[in-house]
Design brief:
By secondary structure, this protein is mainly alpha-helical. It has a single domain, classed as MFS general substrate transporter like domains (Growth Hormone, Chain: A), CATH 1.20.1250.20. 81% of the residues lie in helices and 0% in strands. The protein contains 23 helices and no strands. Helix 2 packs across helix 10, helix 8 packs antiparallel against helix 21 and helix 9 runs antiparallel to helix 19.
């Protein structure tokens, strides 16, 4: 076996071990994170809105105020992760948000709900960009899209598994003299605390410290990642490792606006789909019990997980191009307002399924792009900035959706706004593609092996 063949064997073995050792566990953390964040969407139409006396706008504000605290501490949290290491920082984040999530079990007023949602955002700040940064530090550009796609599968699967699970917990109404929606909050909070404690002992901060890799695998991985960091320094603008340079980069801000549009669609769907399904009875004269509504909520997300995997596999094979983000964003922009024009529950869910497939096909491929141009502290700051601006949509989408629903009495106008935001993302993706080199490092690397 010659040197090239030996390196190829070592490469495959190293990436396989990283994929099995780190990605499933970090994806589990993301699963719990997204379930805790969106638990309010299941609680709202299943007793919480009535018990706390919430209007659609107040529910939207409660859902969105999470992102105020999240945004304020996003960049500092990600810089802290870069300084103290992912193992300590991600574990700390999980335990903190698990404790706050547990307190929702006993919330008794609108103001209390607002306060806890804000505190949950503060507790969770930095987790998602920290997880993206952590995984990006473990795999070369050639493999990054595939790894991030496997990680991102946790998000649609959260709803596939989480919606029926939440429904079962809600159906335990009366247990411990608690309403079903309160039991649901309790049930989804405990895993965050337990997994956070495990993360402290399980995660490894960087490849050089990975005792579960062979010396050859460890040396290859460290050398390849160092080589890519040097290449970024040679090709990027001066100060590429400087956080301030990343925060003032026009390209980073274009990425941030593109992500804003995608996240606007994601959270409008995540927070209001259970409510839209709950409205089928008045709109179409149908009736579903709590568990059936949970299953219906899950329907769009299983095809979305399949679409995410297949689309990202194509992106890995070709190298991520701008159209890997633009095409699904454009499909989402068309499908989201169309969903409100359908004449039956089945047709509505079918179009929403197309929307979910579009959103989840775009997101993991989007995150493969910023890591091409940023390294070191600049990567921590740049990825956090993109996620911060994007998550402004996490606040805006549920609040504007709820407010527009209260004003118009339907979800047609809110969904038109969602479509416009996703259209903006598609246009920005194409614009970045025209101003950037399409034959990006991961595409070149893929064709060289």
């Amino acid at each position: 076996m010659n040197v090239a063949e030996t390196q190829s064997v070592v490469e495959r073995s190293a990436i396989r071990k990283v994929s099995w050792r780190l990605v499933p566990f970090v994806a589990l953390m993301f699963f719990i994170n997204f379930l805790d964040r969106t638990a309010i969407s299941f609680a709202g139409p299943n007793g919480m809105t009535k018990d706390l006396g919430l209007t659609a706008a107040q529910f939207g504000l409660a859902a969105g105020v999470f992102f105020v605290g999240y945004i304020v501490l996003e960049i500092p949290s990600n810089l802290a992760l870069h300084k103290f290491g992912a193992r300590r920082w991600l574990a700390r984040i999980m335990v903190t948000w698990g404790v706050v999530a547990l307190l929702f079990t006993w919330v008794s007023s609108i103001n209390g709900l607002y306060t806890l949602r804000f505190m949950l955002g503060v507790a969770e700040a930095g987790f998602f960009p920290g997880a993206i940064l952590f995984l990006s530090m473990w795999v070369p550009a050639k493999h990054r899209s595939h790894i991030l796609a496997l990680f991102y599968l946790a998000q649609p699967l959260t709803i596939v598994i989480g919606a029926p699970l939440a429904a079962l917990l809600i159906q335990a109404n009366g247990l411990f003299d608690l309403a079903g929606w309160r039991i649901m909050f309790f049930g989804v909070a405990i895993p965050a605390i337990l997994v956070g404690v495990i993360a402290w002992f399980y995660l490894t901060d960087r490849p050089a410290d990975a005792k579960w890799l062979t010396p050859a695998e460890r040396d290859w991985l460290v050398a390849r990642l160092d080589e890519e960091d040097r290449a970024k320094g040679a090709s990027a603008t001066k100060g590429h490792g400087n956080p301030l340079a990343a925060l003032t980069s026009g390209r980073v801000w274009l990425f941030a606006l593109m992500y804003f549009g995608l996240i606007y669609g994601l959270y409008a769907l995540a927070f209001f789909l259970p409510t839209i399904i709950g409205g089928f009875e008045a709109r179409f004269g149908t009736h579903f019990n709590v568990f059936q509504k949970g299953l219906i909520t899950a329907i769009p997300y299983l095809p979305a997980a399949v679409a995410l995997f297949l689309w990202s596999r194509d992106a890995t094979r070709r190298g991520v191009r701008s159209w890997h983000i633009a095409v699904p964003a454009l499909i989402g922009a068309v499908s989201v307002p169309l969903a409100m024009q359908m004449g039956s529950p089945a047709a509505t869910i079918a179009v929403i399924t197309v929307l979910a497939c579009a959103i989840f096909s775009a997101l993991p491929n989007f995150w493969a792009l910023p890591a091409r141009f940023l390294s070191g502290a600049a990567a921590a700051a740049g990825i956090a900035l993109i996620n911060t601006v994007g998550n402004l949509a996490g606040f805006a989408a549920p609040y504007i959706t709820g407010m527009a629903k209260d004003m118009t009495g339907s979800y047609q106008l809110p969904m038109l706004i969602v479509g416009a935001m996703m259209l903006m993302s598609a246009a920005l993706a194409l614009a970045i593609g025209r101003t950037s080199q399409e034959r990006a490092p991961d595409a070149v690397a893929a064709n060289a092996h």
